[in-house]
Each structure stands twice: as C-alpha cells, then as structure tokens.
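Pinned message: reference record for Mg/Co/Ni transporter MgtE
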Amino acid sequence: MTATSSIFVSRIRGLPMLDPNGEQVGKVRDVVIQNRSGNRPPKVKGLVVELFALRRIFFPMERVRSVDPNQVIISGLVNTRRFEVRDREMLVADQLFDRTVQRADSPVPETIFDVGIRHTRGRDWELAEVALRQADRRPFQRSHVTIVDWSEVPDFLDRPAPRDAEQQVMRLSELKPADVARELHDMDPGLRAAVVEAMDDDRLAEALEELPEDEQVDVIAAMDTERAADVLEEMDPDDAADLIAELEPTLAETILQRMEPEDAKDVRTLLSYDAATAGGLMNPEPVVLGIDATVADALASVRREEVTPAMAALAFVCRSPLDTPTGRYVGAVHIQRLLREPPSILVASLIDPDISPLTPQSNVAQVSRYFATYDLVCAPVVDADRRLIGAITVDDVLDHILPNDWRGVQLDRLDVEVSNG
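Predicted structure (tokens):
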C-alpha cells in the first residue's frame, strides 16, 4: 500500500477481514494504538478482529495488505488467542471515542468523534488526525466536526513514564542504535529499567541487537512476557533466535507462545539448526521476487525501510510461493545490476550465474570462505529441495566469529573515544 491519506477508524469498524484467497476471517471491531516518545505520532499496533465464534483476537498492522471501503485484506497466519489489551496500549473506539479534551485554541471543551490513521513508509501505521466536535452541545443540536492534527489534542494518551526516564528517551530518540546501546550499557540499573520501560518496542529492539548477549538477557528477563514478546517480534529473526537461545528454557518457550505465529515460526525454524551453521545464521526474510518481476518491482522491494543495506545487496528470484521456504530457487541478482537496467526488464534475465547457494548445514568456516571467495555481503541458503529458506549477510558471520564479548568491548572503546575526544 502506498496511500498516505488518513483512514478514519469509524469507516473500517465492522468491515470484513479477508485472507489472500478471499475467504472471510472475521470482522474489524477496533484499532489498537500505542503511545511513542519524542513527540512522534502514536503507533497503530493492529486490529481487534471478531471471529465468527465471537472471540476477539489481535491482528498486527504489518500484515494488513490493503484497506478499502468494503474490506480489509491480510496475509499470514492468524493468532486465535483471545485479545487482551497490553500495558501502554489503548483501543481507539472503546477508549478514545467520546473522550473530552480541551485544545489550547478552542474556547470550549470538545469530544473525540473519530480518529484517522495512515500508512507510512515500510509496514508501519500511525495515528494522523483527530475529528472533534463541541462537547456541551444541546440535544439534537447539529455540531460542526473539526479535523485537527493529532499533535493538537492534549494528552489524550496516557504517559506513564517517569519524567527523568521520558527525558532520557527523548534524548536517545535522535541517536543511532549503537549509540543508544552504549547509553543503556552505561546507565545506572534503576534508570535503565525505567528507560527500557518507556522506550518504543522498535527502538528498544534495535538497541538490544547492539548490546552484549548477557545484557540482552538481563533486559528481556526483567520484562513481563507480553512486552518481551512484542520487542522480540521487532528484532530481526536471527537476532531474536540468538537471544531466545540464551534464555532459561521455560521463559523462552513462554515468550515464543506469546509471539505472533509467523514471527515465532521463523524463530523456531532458526533454533532448529545448529547456531554455527548457515541455517542458524540466516535471516528467513530475504528479498524474494517472482519470475515475472521487473527491475522496477525489485527496486521497490529492496527500498523498503525494514530491509538492511546488506540484505538489499541481493534480490532472489524464485517460483511461487514467495514466502520462505519458497518454491524452486532460480537465482540471485545484484542491486548494482538492477540500478543499471531499464525498469521494465525482467529480473530473471539478470541473474548472476556464478552465485551458488549455501546449504543450511554449511558450517561457519565454509560460510566464511564462501563470502571471501565470491566477495559478497549477502548469500542465499537453500534446502535439499532447492527451495530458498533464507539469506546470510556478512555481519551475521562476523557476529559469530568475533569473541563473545566483542560488543561489550566495543561499547567500552566507544566510551574511551568519546571521553578522549
């Protein structure tokens, strides 16, 4: 989806939710939002969907493929566990509609009549606009509805974080993940716990990936399992698998059960391989294209915000299905080649015949020699049936061959460089 105009929640309540085959899964009943730090719009976490058995479940927004006046189209598995509001979340219809607010430039109180959400870059959705009407209107009096930017509505979301933690989170919001990790590494444990609690899940996930393993475990183990599952869902699957492998087994299984089915499936798949093999190192979400994809399609796929620069170096052509494990693997195309070709050319005609895929059983030594031999930063991994099951990037290999404490040492060195600077 590329539309940036707002969709008002009242318009999608009651719409049928359909899977890719056109089968109705249920009906949309509400929208779940979560406040964010740094004066950013609240994030739309997902939909509350009522199944035919009258059970209400949660469905994440990143798997919503399209929204129109008649239906909502989704992809992926549906978690049928009964929906419960988590900490720091709020239901738009149940908890925001009809709430009284007082804007700075309004002479009278107003109530929230509706809320508009919009699709942003990547897979994210956010709260965009709020429709307000006069709160103290007389019965049967028609009231003008005013639509304002979300930022004009004061404190309609709870902000439970302590003031010092909130200030720290605002300061960290402008830093790169590695710098956020260094700050967390150096914080007093009490302040760090408060900051972690106040951070957005996606920002915390990025920072966790840069922390030493023992500190990652400490942070996750201190959370309630619902929040831990949310954060791990935001991490790259290979990093999440590495972290879960370090947790106490009972806690690890509890968190996996709380994760969305597709995210948990990816992690479980990685955990089934030896950590020192290509299967254990790979990311199961590479850039995959069908045989009829064009250069324009490929460039749009590698341009997605969630695709890392290393993962974007290669696009993989496969036969349907295109989710891993895919249909038969056809080949790989370099992004540099894509940039040099006309947009209408078929990607399948640009495959590099010299790239041979790895097997999930390839050990770290073999994978390292592979990258050195072919001078690549990304490589395909296929199973015995020649289906693409993931891709390895060179940073995945470096993470494994460097000493276990390299992240901690790097953070300490950063401290020295900053203090000497």
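Pinned by admin. Summary line: The chain has 17 helices and 17 strands.
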